[in-house]
């Protein structure tokens, strides 16, 4: 990295994308001009990298801060990563299974569900414009998981909060809460803040 060059970070919805989730020609031109003038252009978001890959490709952006700072890439190289504890994810998965609460595991490239065809997963993922993820109940065993989605109602969440101080639980849907590292960005953007419309 050239320390003498400036870097500009962009959010996604309402910044790079318009209200129709489209990439306006004016945005493409603005990014092109910034890069042409020698400015590093990057994206900063709470989303997983695979959720905004199409935007990065269209704009030719290879630097980003994702998962609220847990996975950072500069010019295509991973500079920093902070996955969830595999041991704790394993324990959480077992407790959730006993309680009948499914999970979705997210790494930098994709997401997988602990069970298939669950209504809570369907409705909450639809609000993000995603389909029910494919099933792989042991996905966390061989992948670095940066965020999980726990599907339960607010009144069912308290035991998880009490038993897993290593995690921070952030509710974003009536039937889903994010599972993040407790040491994450407390005052940072919520992983789903980029998405304005919520279908609850």
Automatic annotation (TrEMBL):
- Which taxonomic lineage does the organism of this UniProt entry have? Bacteria, Bacillati, Bacillota, Bacilli, Bacillales
Is Hydrolase included in the keywords of this UniProt record? Answer: yes
Q: Does the keyword Endoplasmic reticulum apply?
A: no
Region (Disordered): which ranges?
181-200
**Name listed for the protein in its UniProt record:** HAD hydrolase, IIB family protein
Gene3D superfamilies, sorted: 3.30.1240.10, HAD superfamily/HAD-like
Please name the PANTHER family in this protein's record.
PHOSPHATASE YKRA-RELATED, PHOSPHOSERINE PHOSPHATASE
- GO cellular component terms listed in the entry, alphabetical order: cytosol
Q: Where are the compositionally biased (Basic and acidic residues) regions?
A: 187-200
Keywords per UniProt: Hydrolase
Q: What Gene Ontology terms describe what this protein does at the molecular function level?
A: magnesium ion binding; phosphatase activity
């Amino acid at each position: 990295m050239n320390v003498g060059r400036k870097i500009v970070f962009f959010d996604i919805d309402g910044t790079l994308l318009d209200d129709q989730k489209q990439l306006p020609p004016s945005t493409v031109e603005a990014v092109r001009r910034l890069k042409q003038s020698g400015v590093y252009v990057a994206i900063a978001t709470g989303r997983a990298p695979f959720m905004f890959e199409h935007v990065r490709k269209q704009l030719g952006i290879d630097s980003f801060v994702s998962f609220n700072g847990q996975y950072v890439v500069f010019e295509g190289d991973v500079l920093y990563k902070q996955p969830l504890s595999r041991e704790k994810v394993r324990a959480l998965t077992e407790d959730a299974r006993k309680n009948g609460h499914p999970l979705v595991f997210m790494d930098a490239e994709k997401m997988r569900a602990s069970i298939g065809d669950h209504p809570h997963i369907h409705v909450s993922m639809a609000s993000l414009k995603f389909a029910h993820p494919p099933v792989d109940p042991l996905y966390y065993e061989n992948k670095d998981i940066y965020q999980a989605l726990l599907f339960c109602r607010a009144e069912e969440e308290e035991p998880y909060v009490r038993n897993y101080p290593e995690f921070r639980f952030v509710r974003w849907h009536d039937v889903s809460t994010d599972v993040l590292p407790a040491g994450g960005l407390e005052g940072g953007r919520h992983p789903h803040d980029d998405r304005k419309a919520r279908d609850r």
